[in-house]
């Protein structure tokens, strides 16, 4: 029997408090990486999708300034305001998170984006579908009632 390879590489930018981050992620597992693996497994189950060879980077930023600067570095100054404390970019297979906003629901949402993008390999997917599936996973695994909401940008 082979040992499953981890799907996540976690990088902390700035003086991130790893213990605090781990505590904020209220999900099965002891370490941040173990919790992410469990979230990924359950997200795949909920969606019925099993993409192979997923390798996801997770970047956790201590400061809002560095977080938004990284966003501007990726997209330039296109007049897009960064007001979301997390996002997933399939081109870089990376989840970007602001430390103070980390939660189980936010991580489930971003992991669901990764799973659907890997599964369908259609980028960009239609906007409503792109938000519907992650919101469904986030509410299902967080034990809440599902209500679709499309964020306007």
How would you explain this protein's 3D organization?
The protein has helices at 18-24, 32-47, 64-75, 104-120, 127-141; strands at residues 8-13, 56-61, 86-89, 94-98. The protein contains 5 helices and 4 strands; from the N terminus they run βααβαββαα. The mean pLDDT is 85. It is of the alpha/beta class. Strands 1-2-4-3 form a 4-stranded mixed sheet. Helix 2 crosses helix 5 (127-141).
Report the principal-axis shape: globular
Q: State the secondary-structure class.
A: alpha/beta
The arrangement of helices and strands along the chain is EHHEHEEHH
State the end-to-end distance: 47 Å
- Helix segment tally: 5
* Side-by-side strand order of the widest sheet: 1-2-4-3
Report the β-strand fraction as a percent range: 5-15%
Give the tally of β-strands.
4
Q: Tell me about the biggest sheet?
A: 4 strands, mixed
Low-confidence stretches: none
Radius of gyration: 15 Å
Average pLDDT score: 85
- Give the % helix: 40-55%
């Amino acid at each position: 029997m082979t040992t499953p390879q981890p799907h996540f590489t976690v990088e902390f930018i700035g003086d991130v408090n790893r213990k605090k981050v781990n505590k904020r992620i209220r999900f099965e597992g002891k370490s941040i990486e173990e919790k992410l693996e469990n979230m990924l497994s359950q997200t795949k189950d909920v969606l019925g999708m099993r993409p192979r060879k997923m390798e996801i980077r997770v970047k956790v930023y201590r400061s809002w300034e560095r977080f938004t600067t990284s966003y501007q570095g990726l997209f330039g100054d296109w007049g897009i305001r960064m007001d979301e404390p997390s996002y997933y970019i399939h081109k870089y297979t990376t989840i970007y998170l602001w430390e103070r906003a980390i939660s189980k629901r936010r991580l489930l949402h971003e992991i669901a984006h990764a799973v659907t993008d890997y599964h369908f390999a259609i980028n960009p997917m239609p906007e409503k579908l792109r938000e519907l599936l992650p919101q469904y996973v986030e509410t299902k695994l967080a034990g809440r009632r599902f209500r679709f909401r499309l964020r306007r940008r």
